[in-house]
Amino acid sequence: MERRAKRYNELWVTEEQTSNMKLSLRINQILINKKSEYQDILLVETFEYGRMLILDGAIQIAERDEFCYSEMMAHIVLCAHPSPKRVLIVGGGDGGVLREVLRHKEVEKATLIDIDKEVINASKKYLPTISCAMDDPRADVQSMDALAYISSVSNEFDVAIIDSTDPVDFAAGLFEADFYSDVKRALKEDGMMLAQTESPFSDSNVVVGAFQEIKKVYPITSLCWGAMPTYPTGIWTYTIGSKKLDPSVPRCPAPEGTKYYTTEIHKAAFVLPPFLKKLLDKA
Amino acid sequence: MERRAKRYNELWVTEEQTSNMKLSLRINQILINKKSEYQDILLVETFEYGRMLILDGAIQIAERDEFCYSEMMAHIVLCAHPSPKRVLIVGGGDGGVLREVLRHKEVEKATLIDIDKEVINASKKYLPTISCAMDDPRADVQSMDALAYISSVSNEFDVAIIDSTDPVDFAAGLFEADFYSDVKRALKEDGMMLAQTESPFSDSNVVVGAFQEIKKVYPITSLCWGAMPTYPTGIWTYTIGSKKLDPSVPRCPAPEGTKYYTTEIHKAAFVLPPFLKKLLDKA
């Protein structure tokens, strides 16, 4: 029998980014692998990106690159608003966006509504650098159906951030005009909302669809983009619906401690390549 | 025996982006799969990105997203230079960067030096939308060792573009100060060079290393970045060494027909997130 070099066990997790494209990451350990009432929850430690939360097979957030996403989600609208005191986060149970929202000293209260309590608990237990702001006295974290919550409030928030999963299953309603209209009613008269709206390369139909739906409801609709390595194609879009103010104009300085966002990045994020402008012309 | 749904053959190609991360693409057909004198050449048709050239296992260029890379490689330096008449392209045997260079009407001659004639021929045969400018009378396409070519010329080019493969094997020398110094001698007194310098997430050591080496040689060293979906992490850096002029300032208008580059994108590409600035502080 021939000798062979010592071999090691390898564990990999694979995301089907589309039916024709997969990203695989080598993992060190599995921390959670269970079904909640709403979805499959997988929390693993990857060698490339640190700990990572995966819901129904889709990568949600990883320790090493989440700052790109969390900062864009929070600071674009919070810095475009002249005085953001009351903030609503829909989804975002990991707490990354909440952490960035609470970097803004002028925020008095941030309400986070995620449908799945088990996601919130998983993040609290295993993703401390992401969930760390949940204990802030200004944080109001609730697990309930955001659609039900939103339909019960009006004229309450300066800014709303829609940190949803992909537009399938229970999250599909978060990409429709009826929901955006409810959010509009929940906003004050100079309020604005921002939603994550997927990749312009692999999900251009979602980008166009969300833009169309938001445009039906808000007088000002605008799109910006940024880097996000663990999401399909590495490029992500964020679409803003605003009742009064142009969201591409930064009105407040960047909070301290950011790794992705600056006032200059804010302006640059609204500069769109022609292929992306052309995509929005369809909307 | 139970009946089962009809199943289909699936062919996938996988790139090891790092030892801990892999991208897989479903393919329709294999057009070339051979060894040249220098490298393994694989040319496949993918469902997600159209036809794709892979060298030694690394994705080089794909029909559907190459515009992001080809345009940044060409237009940043060609638009920053006030009058680019003579252009050198090192590598880039697929012809994508050459096509973009020749969109500039003021370019009188573009010399492309790729070590591997078989890459040039593969692109001519199977990637017509990418290689289409090789027959332009202003194109001078040669297959030889760029290191040898460069050491024989001086004061000849306005702009040089280093479209190399990853810094391993025969391409490693293209990331060193000696080479950048030879390129400097080949440039005219207001000349500038741009090199692709990998991802700030997965290859931060290459980003820092190339910046250091270029800085040793050029009075002005500057880095910009952009989207590139089929490259690891989707974000790519481009580093410029300039003898006299600030490359972040666009001096010529964008050529017609671009899908990624505009004058505004030029300026935005030099706006760096703090994490990337911090990386360069090490250089």
Topology, please?
Two copies of one chain form a homodimer.
Chain A: E1 11-18, E2 21-35, E3 40-46, E4 50-55, E5 58-62, H1 66-80, E6 86-91, H2 96-101, E7 109-113, H3 117-126, H4 128-131, E8 139-142, H5 146-150, E9 157-163, H6 177-186, E10 187-196, H7 204-217, E11 220-227, E12 235-242, H8 263-269, H9 274-281
Parallel strand pairs in A: 6-7, 6-9, 7-8, 9-10
Antiparallel strand pairs in A: 1-2, 2-3, 3-4, 4-5, 10-12, 11-12
Helix pairs in contact in A: 6-7
Question: What descriptors fit this protein?
Answer:
homodimer, 283 residues, alpha/beta, Spermidine Synthase, Chain: A, domain 2, Rossmann fold, 2 domains, five-stranded antiparallel beta sheet, 28% helix, Spermidine_synt_N (chains A, B), PABS (chains A, B), polyamine biosynthesis (chains A, B), spermidine synthase activity (chains A, B), EC 2.5.1.16 (chains A, B)
Entry summary:
The structure is a homodimer of 283-residue chains. Chain A is an alpha/beta fold.
Helix share, percent of chain A: 25-40%
Rg over CA atoms of chain A: 19 Å
Separate helix tally of chain A: 9
- By DSSP, the count of extended strands of chain A is 12
Instruction: Provide the residue-averaged pLDDT of chain A.
Output: 95
Topology-level CATH name of the largest domain in chain A? Rossmann fold
Give the CATH architecture of the largest domain in chain A.
Answer: 3-Layer(aba) Sandwich
What low-confidence regions of chain A span 5 or more consecutive residues with pLDDT below 50? Answer: none
**How do the SSEs of chain A run, as a string of H and E?**
EEEEEHEHEHHEHEHEHEEHH
Instruction: Identify the CATH homologous superfamily of the largest domain in chain A.
Output: Vaccinia Virus protein VP39
Based on helices, strands and strand pairing, what is the structural class of chain A? alpha/beta
Oligomer: homodimer
Structural domains of chain A: how many: 2
Keywords (chains A, B): Polyamine biosynthesis, Spermidine biosynthesis, Transferase
Pathway (chains A, B): Amine and polyamine biosynthesis; spermidine biosynthesis; spermidine from putrescine: step 1/1
GO molecular function (chains A, B): spermidine synthase activity
Catalytic activity (chains A, B): S-adenosyl 3-(methylsulfanyl)propylamine + putrescine = S-methyl-5'-thioadenosine + spermidine + H(+)
